[in-house]
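Exam revision sheet. Question 4 asks you to relate a sequence to its structure. Input first:
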Amino acid sequence: MNKLQLNGIELAYERRGKGTPLVLIHGYPLDHSIWNDVASQLENDFDLILPDVRGFGESTVDSPYSLTDIANDLAALLDSLGVAQTTLAGHSMGGYIALAFAKAFPERVKGLALVSSQVATDTPERKEGRYKTAADVAQKGVHIVADAMTDKLSPSQSVRDGIRPLIAKQSVAGVTGALKAMAEREDLTSFISSFGQPLVLIHGDADELIPIERAREIKSLIPSAHLVELSGAGHMPMMEMPVETASALIKLK
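Answer key, structure tokens:
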């Protein structure tokens, strides 16, 4: 992977393909590799930029952070690569990051895709749960997240088998930092309601973590949004149905 020193961290990323810039942002608690099957189908149409967000994969982290901090990392990465404007596709937490980027840098965004994501903030109970999980991870290690979360991510055994070790190898600092950052994120319902660029929504109807109703609610706010509902897919459509996911993302070209 390529690595850059920026914003006090070392940010790792891959860049492949040619065409319209498209940043593929992974979700929690994963890394850029979840996009591999989709990226191989898009590299003839897009200049793909696949970062490991701070604290995950090969990217470092040394302090608490917010989703806006990660958005600033992406802006610095794009500056380093000479990319003035881009489209972004974010999975789950990556969707929250993409939204934070779009709010902070609207002039740089040509289009947006939310994959298994949402615009609403956490309920008080969910927020409390994230902080409890962060405390447990700090005490016991990341394996507790792998044990508790893997089976909820996909109905596909082969996908779960690939995800469990990927979660288990992430850093304690990255996982706890992301949990706290997600807990403190703002509600962006009003922001997305006025979003004027192309918007693609990709969601599995078997998603146990973020119900497909969240995507349908966004579609109701923005009728022009392109909603792709994937029958039988869980929370990981880029791994479960990469062909269908790539076909939906092509609409951002």
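Marking note for examiners. The two ends are 25 Å apart (CA to CA).
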